[in-house]
TrEMBL record, chains A, B:
Record-annotated HTH lacI-type domain positions: 16-68
Domain of life: Bacteria
Pfam families reported for this sequence: LacI (PF00356), Peripla_BP_3 (PF13377)
Full protein name: Transcriptional regulator, LacI family
Sections of the chain in a coiled coil: none
Keywords for this protein: DNA-binding, Transcription, Transcription regulation
InterPro entries named among the record's database cross-references: HTH_LacI (IPR000843), LacI/GalR-like_sensor (IPR046335), Lambda_DNA-bd_dom_sf (IPR010982), Peripla_BP_I (IPR028082)
One Gene Ontology term of the molecular function aspect: transcription cis-regulatory region binding
Gene3D superfamilies reported in the protein's UniProt record: 3.40.50.2300, lambda repressor-like DNA-binding domains (1.10.260.40)
Organism: Klenkia soli
Length: 345, 345
DNA sequence: GACGGACATGTTAGCGCTAACAACAGTGGT
DNA sequence: ACCACTGTTGTTAGCGCTAACATGTCCGTC
């Protein structure tokens, strides 16, 4: 058990020279011990360490930051954290940062507008963070980053583009290809796509991968709809799809840009009397924890979100160490469950 | 190909006296302008402000923190942010903090063990945060907080207990009562409950509310199962429930501790050939965005998570201002959808 | 016209820490 | 013996900022 201090001692500021006095050394020696400098006699070191523990001393981060110019803090600019993917990425990031001895300051922006991102980065700079990680897939946001030129390393995570130098991304195209190949392999003539918002780079990349894979396989191009990542937009498109099928259009496979839209889509299809995968096969993207419990369990593309966060931190550390660093990529994986099958005959 | 320095000045540290020199005043006058002190001549003020803008000066937060003893940062200790509720609460918190001029430092702990929480709080203290918000409902965590005595205000959010002074909570019991009354009103004899983990206070409060409401209505006590918040645990219990029904036990209404477990439960029920709400009515808790798209759309209790976060910040600010502050409560609301109905006859 | 007071500024002294240097030991080689 | 050298400690000087005090300056007032 960590015994704080004897009895009470609510909040008397405890500084380095208090420790020094107790250990009978100079405050500088304490500093050396705290920072793990080599040239301290073992005896002295342990004496100081004991004093630190007995007193419960914690070095003052502000003072240290002032003199070293580094706050050992990483700023994260993110959005949509109430969605599974972004949240999971943030978790990975926080943990990797913590392990590396950094703490994480978070700004959750709303609109992804150039201004809000710029402002968030600016605040982080003023706050003396050592680096900024921007987690977004929004095109506007990408533009914002291009303009910005912060005095600290800035790395981007999970956006499609490479223009900004160091970037970690999931290879979205590859994910989309996996889906198309799976469905075509099942016998579907083509695959239609319900993508995310147009300004999302992730979404755009998936659209590209979908289109290319279709073209390469010699399949006719499929229909493209745009949603907003939420179930309700999937639901709307589901109604539309059902209407077209009734109108005679042969829609047998839909690839949704994320699991939530896939959910809305499947529900709408059921409501309209269609079966999944009997009439229409549906694939999602993300593999949220609920996906195996949808009706039917959803075939989807798994992305390792926490890995994304971890690599983001790696990239940051590399840049802080002045190392050469390149864009880094994480490969997605297809999980086949029961929402896909052969097309109706 | 890291494009760090694009043409302009890379990162020459810009300090207050630079601004002072440019504006032809002393650095202290600049400080006064920056901090909005009253006694500065309007002419001087605008001259300084212009100099600040032209130079793009940003005060150094570390130096300011060192001298004022305040970093204008709030530390948030949280967990399970990949779930909708906690994430949403964090969003509310971050926004409220930002509006109040604070930035948010985040620690995501895993196990809710006493140690990890204590360590997180400790790190925040070393980091000179002005206050710590702990967002958890875990009993162990509550114990951890009781032991801790950080030198900064600590407020708890969303835990059932009041023992720790300032706390913001959703009135979980009230939510549970809403559910029980609704189901009893529909004609069910009693209501069974699939709760969250035993060490969760939220969960415990819901159990109490459920039990009390049942007792007060003179209904026989229902069965109690424990899950882990995730769909898979709901699924397991669903299989169990189906087995009991087949065995003759009259289970007609189950109240799940959250929406995800309700989802798993309903899926298992369907798999076992039972209808929701035809054979069994199911109610969730939280109102995640997917809930209206479950099959059937889920009757659930809506909690205003972001409000929780916002009030957490209010509480923090009040304490920092030395104001008297009390425990604060947010009322939940029942959303009736299609997963509940009259019991089978 | 001398004087107290409100205002506007500048000057000084630290906040708690680390970096640089200075001051000493103790070594071993010659 | 001496000296150059390594290893250990203490001393000093800031980092960039704000609080407290010191210094003006311009009023109105009697």
């Amino acid at each position: 058990m960590s015994t704080d201090t004897t009895g009470s001692a609510p909040a008397r500021p405890l500084v380095m020279s208090d420790v020094a006095a107790r250990a009978g050394v100079s405050h500088q020696t304490v500093s050396r011990v705290v920072n793990g400098h080599p040239n301290v006699a073992p005896v002295t070191r342990s004496r100081v360490q004991r004093a630190i523990e007995e007193l419960g001393y914690r070095p003052n981060a502000a003072a240290r930051a002032l003199v070293t110019g580094s706050s050992r803090t990483i700023g994260l600019v993110t959005m949509n954290v109430n969605q599974y993917g972004p949240a999971q990425t943030m978790i990975g990031l926080e943990q990797a940062a913590r392990v590396a001895g950094y703490s994480l300051s978070v700004a959750i922006v709303e609109g992804a507008g150039v201004e809000s991102i710029a402002e968030a980065v600016d605040r982080f700079v003023a706050q003396s963070v050592d680096a900024v990680v921007v987690h977004t897939a929004d095109l506007e946001a990408v533009a914002a980053l291009g303009v910005l030129d912060p005095p600290v390393p800035l790395v981007a995570v999970q956006m499609g583009g490479e223009e900004l130098g160091p970037t970690v991304t999931v290879v979205q195209e590859a994910g989309a290809r996996l889906v198309v190949d799976h469905l075509l392999g099942l016998g579907h003539t083509t695959v239609h796509h319900l993508s995310g918002p147009e300004h999302s780079m992730e979404s755009r990349r998936r659209v590209e991968g979908w289109r290319d894979a279709l073209a390469e396989a010699g399949a006719p191009p499929g229909e493209l709809w745009h949603g907003d990542w939420w179930p309700s937009s999937g639901h709307e498109v589901g109604i539309e799809v059902a209407a077209r099928i009734r109108g005679g259009q042969p829609i047998t496979a839909v690839f949704a840009g994320n699991d939530q839209m896939a959910l809305g889509l499947m529900v709408a299809l059921h409501e309209q009397g269609l079966s999944v995968p009997g009439d229409v096969s549906v694939v999602g993207f993300d593999d949220v924890p609920e996906a195996p419990y949808f009706s039917p369990p959803l075939t989807t593309v798994q992305q390792d979100f926490s890995e994304l966060g971890r690599r983001g931190v790696q990239l940051v550390l590399a840049r802080l160490a002045g190392q050469h660093c390149e864009a880094d990529q994480v490969q997605p994986r297809l999980l086949v469950r029961r929402s896909t099958g052969a097309p109706p005959r």
